[in-house]
Amino acid sequence: MTTELSPFDVGKVFELSDGRQLGYVSIGNNSSSITAVYFHGLSGSRLEVLNHVKEVENSGTRLISVDRPGIGLSSSNSNGTLLSFGKDINELLDYLEISSVSLVAFSGGAPYALACAYLSEQSDHKVSSVALLSGLGPIRMIGTKDMMLANRIIFSISPYSPTVVSLIFWLFARNVRSRLENGDPNVINEVVSSILGQSSVQPSDKLLLQDLDDDERFNYLVGVFEAYRNGASGVGHDAYLISRDWGFNESDIKVPVYIYHGSDDVNVPFRMADYMCNKLSNAVLHKLDSSAHVSTRFHSMEKALTESNMWL
């Protein structure tokens, strides 16, 4: 008798030197010499990549997607920072015997990817390039102008009270994860219908969700709600870290950084991409007209991996 593996259980756990666990999943060509590390968005997880297997395979890449502390399979780290997570990534790469990688980040994963690139300037781990998909910039410098109301609220609270932010995210997640894991046939349509009914969701993101088939919608929701495997404190701490001082100067990052950003993004407004392009010393900005937040990730993943691979 065989037991079908739940999508929520896809992945492995690596024990860090301090005893914490780091959850990750590897997709694509695991024998490839071309490796990229993926940094999920805020309220995302390692499973965010489940809908990108085809693009990863087409690019000839091995893509390693990692849960941040307190999210998915990863242990919490109340004293963690952006830079300490970069050191966690370096430990994982040592274990996997990988010395050179490119980095790909979506939304709130961008500050963590840039922290890893910053660390590579002073370590044996070579980061060849970074690709930011709808990447969040430093809120402390740019502010929240042009963001959707929900995000403005989150980022106005998160620098001061991650506990309150955790509660807000938990009210959002509630029982959806358990219903998904238990195979509730109604939950996918309920959640997708709720998203499509929100006025803040831009047309290109709505069209993307409408075009996904049932399996793709399920994978999309799994990638989001796996973040709440252990509650919402990990997501709250994530928001706390990315909304405060990052602990490094972005202008010190020398590797190529490819920025893919939709003109219609209200989760992370396009002016953040403009700011980052001007702040980073070696950045290329790809503006996606009429694209929004999640649609930019789906439309740009393969190109971002291929472009980044040129430096490996």
Tell me what you see in this structure.
With 312 residues, the protein is of the alpha/beta class. The protein has helices at 53-59, 82-95, 110-120, 139-142, 149-157, 162-173, 176-181, 187-196, 203-211, 214-225, 233-242, 270-279, 293-309; strands at 12-15, 21-28, 35-39, 62-66, 100-106, 126-133, 257-262, 283-288. The chain has an eight-stranded mixed sheet with strand order 1-2-4-3-5-6-7-8, with helices on both faces. The longest helix is centred in the last third of the chain and has 17 residues, at 293-309. It is globular and about 50 Å long. 49% of the residues are buried. The mean pLDDT is 94.
Question: Helices, strands, pairings?
Answer:
Elements lengths: L11 E4 L5 E8 L6 E5 L13 H7 L2 E5 L15 H14 L4 E7 L3 H11 L5 E8 L5 H4 L6 H9 L4 H12 L2 H6 L5 H10 L6 H9 L2 H12 L7 H10 L14 E6 L7 H10 L3 E6 L4 H17 L3
Parallel strand pairs: 3-4, 3-5, 5-6, 6-7, 7-8
Antiparallel strand pairs: 1-2, 2-4
User: Based on helices, strands and strand pairing, what is the structural class?
Assistant: alpha/beta
Mean pLDDT score, rounded? Answer: 94
Cα Rg: 18 Å
What characteristic shape results from the CA principal axes? globular
Q: Report strand %.
A: 15-25%
Major sheet characteristics: 8 strands, mixed
Our measurement of the CA-to-CA distance between the termini, rounded to an integer number of angstroms, reads 44 Å
What is the chain-wise order of helices and strands? EEEHEHEHEHHHHHHHHEHEH
> What is the share of helical residues?
40-55%
Q: Which regions are unreliable across 5 or more consecutive residues at pLDDT < 50?
A: none
The order of strands across the largest sheet is: 1-2-4-3-5-6-7-8
In total, the number of strands is 8
